[in-house]
Amino acid sequence: MKRKQRREAVRIAEYLVSGGAYFWTGYAVFAIGDQIFHLNLWWAKLLANVCGWLVNYMLQRYWVFNSKSLAKHQTEVSRRYIVITLVNFLVDYLIIWSLKQAGLTPYVGQFISAGFFTIWNYLWYKYWVFPSHTHHHIRHSTT
After folding, report:
1. What pTM does this model have?
2. End-to-end CA distance of the chain, in Å?
C-alpha cells in the first residue's frame, strides 16, 4: 500500500506543477489581453484559457496521467478533456465575473478561482478524463 500512496503523492505533486504552468500561462496571457490589447473580461479570459489549456492538456495527458492504455483511447480522452474544459471555462468566468461585480479585481479573482479548480479538476481528471482503468470506464460510460 505504501508504494501506491507514494505514487499518488508523486502524481499530486506533478498535477500541482502542471496546474501551476496552466495558471501562470493563462494569467500572463490574461494580463496581456487586458492591459495591452484592452480586451473585455470574456475575450481576455477566453484567450488566456485557450493558451493555458494547450499547456495543461499536454502536461496532464503525457506526464501526470500518462498511461499506455490512454493512447488507445485518445479520441475519447480528448473529447472528455474538451467537455470538462468548456464547463470549467463557464464556471471560471462566472466566478471571476461575480467577484469583479463584488469589487474584486480579476487578477485576485483568478487566484480564488484557481483554488476551487485545483481540487475540482484533479478529481475530474483522475476519475473521468484520464482514468487509469480506461477500458472499463470508457466502454461503459457511453451506455
Report:
1. 0.82
2. 33
